[in-house]
Every structure is written in structure tokens, then in C-alpha cells.
Amino acid sequence: MQRISLLSLALVSAPALAQQAPAPAPEDNQIVTQGEDIVVVATRLRGQVDAPQPPILTLDEEDVAAYGAATIDDLLTAISPQTGSGRGRGGSRPVVLLNGQRVSSFRELRGIPPEAIRRLEVLPEEVALRFGYVPNQRVVNFILKDDFSSTTLAGEYDMPTRGGFADWELEGGLLRIDGPSRLNLEAEIEKTTLLTEAERGLSDPDEAPTVSGDPDPAAFRSLIDESRQMSLNGTWSTGLGEEGMAGTLSLNGAITRTDTRALSGLDAVLLTGPDGTSEVRTLAGPLVRDGRTTAYQAGFALNKPLGAWQLSVTGDGSFGDARTLVDRDADVTALVAAAAAGTLDIAGPLPVPGSPGRDIAREKDLALGTLTTLRGSPFRMPAGEASLTLDAGFDYDRTRSSDTRTGRTTLVLDRSTISGGANLSLPIASKREDVLAGLGDVTLNLSAGVDRLSDFGTLSDWTTGLTWKPTGTLTLQATYIVSEAAPSLGQLGGPQIVSRNVPVYDFVSGDTVLAAITTGGNPDLAAEKQRDVKLSAEWDLPFLDRSNLVVEYFRNRSTDVTQSFPLLTPAIEAAFPSRVTRDAAGTLVAIDRRPVTFDEIESSRLRWGLNLSGEIGGGDDEARGQRAGRDRGERQRGRGGPGGFMGRGGDRPGRWNLALYHTWRFTETATIAQGGPVLDLLGGDALAAGGVARHSFELEGGVFHKGLGARLRGNWTAPVTVSASGAPGSSDLRFGSVFELNARFFVSLDRQEKLVAKYPFLEGTRVSLTVDNILDSRQRVTNEAGEIPYAYQPAFRDPRGRVIGIDIRKMF
């Protein structure tokens, strides 16, 4: 509460602290002609982020065009090696900014075509603190063109080379940008068809019926669920005051409906006759699980200057209604009794049992949140202006769930969170200000925050960091982060759902069994405490423009860690015996996989990467002028018309880039309970199927020239061995290395001038061919005898395999 008062004080005093609003930043580089030479004078582009940490990656519009991305989502996927955080906290998506300002959610950017992007910046995690976020993810800043208009239609169809299922997607969008005003509408429908185990040649011999003519359960158990998703999304933004000088206001709304259908196999029964003979019979009619989720979302963002300070207020709300219908097991009591009495031929036709009905699990989630930040300079130091960000927020989450299977009455969980924090950046040394100039540029960063949770009490966090730039091409950073985190409401109170006939490898027996798996919430979870260290260096390479080397070291330590129930190794079963059910013969029959609390998890790793880029061919003066900033009106006009990216004119050079990242894990340990054994996750222990690989690589690169482009994206993971119990019949498992390589080939027909002149309807069209998992590689899992356990058949690990897709996109 005290931090909110600090923010209120800052809001009142900001006009008094401000001297005069600075003039708008120049919109581009300035071109100065000296005789026959063209001199480019670099100036800050409006919308760029002002931070002591330099961007890890910067793309201009021609660089963006070289990726051939159809959406911003596709573009973020393409640059995932650069946007991914090695810290190991938070989600996979980076923090996104639009024109250097916060947005209510990523929905505001959905549907914006990449052609509307003027520049893209990827910044390190520490920059997130300046915008009121925790430093868990990197920051991506999208700077849009000032004048752009387009209508887009796109279709995509994907099919695996092994057959069995297909994906297709249709999308339409409209975008209008006029200075600070923006209108963006998008509609999308996606469909995925069902893939069964039988379509991948999977059949468990232990489950196969013993009577000819009985249906095979593998034909009625899905590897990929059938699904359909429809969504509508819209964003409206307007400038406040003359030409938006008084700020901007944006409103967003979206609705999404997702339907799924999964098959869980067949009912089976063991029938024994009066003479003691028996048969395993399967009953016709699959066990079906149907789901429907409807989500309603809305948000707003207000960004407004207050003198020399910048006020941002964002709000986001969502309501989700999820319903799952699960077929009950058939009542086979009468069949068993009739077989035992001799009135039913155990190998003959079986009567159809009556319908047992369906269980229903319902979950309704409400999430509301608002965050207010105030950024500015409270005072000047000898080395430059200090930078201060004050933030205050309120979040409310409510989950209402019920499940007829467990007989539990409706469970309601809610949580309200009041948060406040401050981030202060202090320049210590500066070459430009000639203060301790021998050191270069040094900036100290201090951050602290507090969260008051209605169901968990008070959580706190604080961060300290140092950024040192001894030269113009080398940046060194050190950051220490201390924070606390509470389990989510879903982890605490999600509805319990039982999935039957799930293949599970039993490390004790060395066999694959079909077990009942329980998922849902656990109300007994504790708050997690995190202590992290990050050391990093970024060096701009002297032999290539816009290329750099990034090296990062991370050390994480967490206590009272909320984890999904881990891989059922003997050590895990010994630690959580109540979560595992075995029959009298010791056969594994059920696992309760609701979340658990671990005492401690520690890890350390090094992540380093090379980002290389360059041009292909030359370019005339006009093309060079366009790249440097000349003819800005043409470049910003776009209009989705000729060329999309800067029209068709000019002999522009092509682009190439290569990003290669390597992660080397030094330590990875987990302590299940205080005083208990320590699991070495790099030495044979495991919490998840596949264990933890010591080494992994990420690769992304491509070329683009004269409208033709090719992209490659790959991931390689080192092999891992998971140790067994040592009991008779048990076996270690070796998870082999896996290399997945994806390719995208595309042609922007706008750049084919002769073709467009002959067939004008091709203007604004791009055709792409995608091949995911070119090598059709799948991880191979073997026991000590070199055999593949049934639960680790390659089709279970990756049912899709190689997938070929065609994508056609038309922009008007």
C-alpha cells in the first residue's frame, strides 16, 4: 500500500518536476549530401526504447521482409533464438511493446501484417523493469509505420507425409494506420483432424483382444485430438490532442471458441467361464472426451505524457468457460456374472451394455488486471539523467470448478493482488559527460516490489544490476534477482479429471502399462522463493555490420517449488507413495499427477549465441537512400500495395542472416523433501520424460533476394540416460539425441515485376512452402537391451513427423 501512495505522490508532483516536454524525436536518419558523397547522420527513431542496455537484435523493414512471415506470431517464432530468455523463469513469449509503449496484451498486435513494421528491437530482460514487468523475459519493441493500409486474406494447409490427419487455417484481416490512429480487425478459423494410434501402427500386445473380430482399441485412441478454433479480434487506437501529442488510447476485444474431441480407447472386460477358461473382450463404442472452451477478452491502454514524464495505464480482462464431457466406464457386472454362470459364450457375440452416461467437469475463470506506471527522470547526476519507474497494479482471479466424477461440490477459488514497485536507474560513469570517462559508461539499476495476495499474504522481490560499456562495442551486465511466487489458481484448484488407458512406462517392472491418470489442482501447495544470478556480455562484431556475440551465465536457486508431478521413477515413487496405486501383483494401475511441492531446485548454465547478418549484392543510390532513411514517405506509405515493403522500385540488395545459440548446463539438481535425497538431473535422475540434456543448440537463418526467400530453423538436443531402480526386470532408459530442422521457402510476387505486369491479380501475393521436421527425425528411446518400450514408441514422442504445408497470402 505504501508503494501505491508513492505513485500517487509522483502523479501529483510530476508536472512540478518537469521543465518542458522534449521535442518529438526525429523520425529517421538524416541524409546530408557533401559533393558526391552521401552522409547518414544517425538519430533516434520515434518509438525506440531509451535504455542503457543495447538491443540484442534490430531489424528494419527489409530485414523483416527477408523472414517471409505472414503474421507477427510467425515472425516471433522465426526469431525465437534471439527472443528466448535463458533465465528459465516465466513463459515463452517475450514482453511486447508497440512504438516503445506498453500494450494491454499481445492481442493488440495480432493481425498486424509484418509489412506494417518499420523497425523491430529485441532487448535484454533487464529492460522489462523499466516498463513495470519482472525480468523474466526479453523485450520486443515493434515500431510501426505512420501511414499504412491493408486488407489481408490468407490460407494454409498442412499434411504429414505419413498421412493420417491434416491442419488447415483461414484468416482475414484489415489494418488502417493514420499517424496515432489505428484500426485492426482479424478473423480466424483453424481445424485439426483426428489421428489415432492405429494410423501410426501402434498396438499394445498386452491390450489386444483375444477373440477374433473384437475391435482393436488402438483404432479408438487418439494421438492428436480433433479440434476446431474460431476467433475474432479487434483493436482501435486513437491519438489524444493535436496529432497525438497528448497521448494515445487503445481498446481491444476478442472472442475465441475451441472445440476438441479425444478418444480414450474401448471398454474391456475379462470373462471367465465355468470351466476356468477366460477371454479378454473389448466392447464396441469408443470412450470419448469432448471439450468446449469459450473465452471473452477485453483490454485498454492509455499512454500519456505528463510534462517530462510518461504515464501508462493498461487494463486487461478475460472470462473463460470450459466444459469437459467424459464417457463413464460401461457396467460389465452382468456380463461377468453371465459368463461365470455359463449362460454367456465368452468367445461369442456380446450384448451391448446400457449407456452409463457421461461425467461433466466445468471450470469458469475470471481474470482482471490493471497496471499503472510512471516513467521519467527525477533528478540529474553528474553522469547523466537518473531514470525512475513507479508502478502500481491490481489483479483479481476467480476460478469456479465442479466435477461429477469425484462427486465434489462446486469449488470456488479467488485471489486479489495489490502490487507496487519502483525501478531506479543511476548513471555512474559516462564518456559523453566526461565523468569517470576512463571506465566507459556504467549504470546501476535498483528495483524493489511487493505483492499482497489475499490467499497467500505478502510476497516481495528486489533486483540489483550493473551495466558496464567499457567500449562502444562491448556491454557487460550483472544482475541479482530475489523474488517470491505463488502457485496459480489452476494449480491450486483445477477440477480433477481422470484419463484412462494412458500408456505409462513402469521403471520398477520395465513394462509399459495402461494406467488411469488424475490431473487437477492441489490446495496444499506452498509459495516459491527464487534467488537468481545473471552475468552477460554482448560484443558487436567488427567484421560484420549489425552482428554480435552474446554470452550469458545463469544460476538459479528455488525453494518450495511447485512442480507438475514428475516422471515416475523409483525415487519419485518412494517420495510420493500415496500418489501411486498398484494392484496385488504390483502392477501399476493409477497415478495422481496433480502438482507437488519440491524442497529445492538448483541449476546453472551458460548460453551463448552468434547473430550474423549481411547484404547480398549491391544497390543503387535510390535503394541505399531508402535504407538510410531517404524517401521516407514512400517507405511508410506501404498501403499493402505494390511491393508491400517499400514498393517494387530500386535495385535493392538482398539479405542473409544466421543465428546460432548453444546452451550448456553445468548443474541441475532437485531435493524432493528437506533432508531427503538430492536428484542429479544431469546424472541419471529425471523429473520429466526425456530428462535434462546437458547440451542443446538452436539454429535460425535464411536468405532473401529479388523476392525469393529460404529460411531454416533447427534444434538439436543431446542424448540423456535415465537410471532405473536396479530391481529385477528394471532397466535404464536412453533418450537419444534429436535434431529437428524446419524449412520455409517463399516467393513475394510483388518483386517479380514482369510477372505482375502480365498477371496484375498477383500483386500483393506471397506463396510459401513449409516443411516441418525435414529429416522426419524422432527421438529414439531404448532400454538396456536396445529395445523400445511401448510407451516410448516414436509415434508417441512425435505423432506428427514430417509435415508439408502450403501458405497463400494476398494483400490488397
Automatic annotation (TrEMBL):
Residues 249-717 form the TonB-dependent receptor-like beta-barrel domain. Residues 639-648 have a biased composition (Gly residues). GO terms for cellular component: cell outer membrane. The keyword Membrane applies. Residues 621-637 have a biased composition (Basic and acidic residues). It comes from the Bacteria. Residues 617-651 are annotated as: Disordered. InterPro entries: Beta-barrel_TonB, Beta-barrel_TonB_sf, Plug_dom_sf. SUPFAM superfamilies: Porins. The keyword GTP-binding does not apply. Residues 1-18 form the signal peptide. Keywords: Cell outer membrane, Membrane, Signal. It is found in: Cell outer membrane. This is TonB-dependent receptor-like beta-barrel domain-containing protein.
